[in-house]
Amino acid sequence: MSTAREQPIFSTRAHVFQIDPATKRNWIPAGKHALTVSYFYDATRNVYRIISIGGAKAIINSTVTPNMTFTKTSQKFGQWADSRANTVYGLGFASEQHLTQFAEKFQEVKEAARLAREKSQDGGELTSPALGLAAHQVPPSPLVSANGPGDEKLFRSQSADVPGPAERERLKKMLSEGSVGEVQWEAEFFALQDSNNKLAGALREANAAAAQWRQQLEAQRAEAERLRQRVAELEAQAAAEQPSASEKEGSQALEQLEALVQTKDQEIQTLKNQTGGPREAVDATEREETQHKVQDLETRNAELEHQLRATERSLEEARAERERARAEVGRAAQLLDVRLFELSELREGLARLAEGTP
């Protein structure tokens, strides 16, 4: 191939595949990394070719003919059959936009090849209206980025970065060799590898979340058991105290003390009345004895009043203690209900996780 007669008119980067000639079903990748894939126009022969170089060999050297068809098999993958090379080529692009641009250029080149064939059969001037290129003279068309930075960007023809003579000679040598290496891999290997990594990461996250939920579940179970034991202790304590019987006994003791105090008050009043009236017949000894009795009764009355107040205080304390026990039992029961609800939610979450994990 002469460097003056063949120039690149469009370039992009993609993962290159060829159909397995043995099975005609599996794809064989040309390498682990994306390669440059270019459209070339041979002004001397008036033909268009798709060429991709990998290392020192031409991975793709396909002459575009009017009966070829480029098919999009997915959002980022396309293919075409080359009957002359007796193979099918596949390209995996970095984005749907790159695939669309390559497919559009394929249609343009295909149309230009059809027009060139018709004009060559008619014997007229050979031109390519679809690409605006003369058949016998193609101006220099080096490659310039059209879609920003990165290895996966597309290129279009402009007047900069013209391949030098040494580069064109290298391309010519690689194209002349024309052999393609074969490696047994699947067609969508790289896409499947990426999907597998994502699924593995999601599975690890799900397992970590399940382990954390199991720890929380065990902690909730231990807390619920502790609360059950506490409620049982409080109920046993409340039953042992028997607040109703204690109140009844306290009330009866209080009534008896009050009745005794009233009786003693009446006796004191009677004795006072007896000592306060004229008793000329009672001598001094009887008066002293009566006074001693009055003093004894007053002392006894004071003691009974003190006992009464102590009994009242004990009764109030017993009532307050009972109320506190009831309140504590109520709070413990509420906390137990909350823990049981949280435990139920954790069980449901683990069940959903188990159902969703493959």
From TrEMBL:
Q: Which GO terms describe its molecular function?
A: G protein-coupled glutamate receptor binding; identical protein binding; protein domain specific binding
Keywords for the protein's UniProt record, in alphabetical order? Coiled coil, Cytoplasm, Phosphoprotein, Synapse
WH1 domain segment(s): 1-113
What GO biological process terms are annotated to this protein in UniProt?
G protein-coupled glutamate receptor signaling pathway; negative regulation of calcineurin-NFAT signaling cascade; negative regulation of interleukin-2 production
Q: Name one Pfam family in it.
A: WH1
Where are the residues of the annotated region Disordered? 269-304
Localization per Swiss-Prot or TrEMBL: Cytoplasm; Postsynaptic density
InterPro entries found in the cross-reference section? Homer, Homer_EVH1, PH-like_dom_sf, WH1/EVH1_dom
Has UniProt tagged this entry with the keyword Phosphoprotein? yes
List GO terms (cellular component aspect).
basal part of cell; cytosol; glutamatergic synapse; postsynaptic density
Identify the domain of life.
Eukaryota
Q: Where is the composition biased (Basic and acidic residues)?
A: 280-304
Describe the family membership recorded for this protein in Swiss-Prot or TrEMBL. Answer: Belongs to the Homer family.
Q: What is the name listed in the Swiss-Prot or TrEMBL entry for this protein? A: Homer protein homolog 3
Gene name? HOMER3
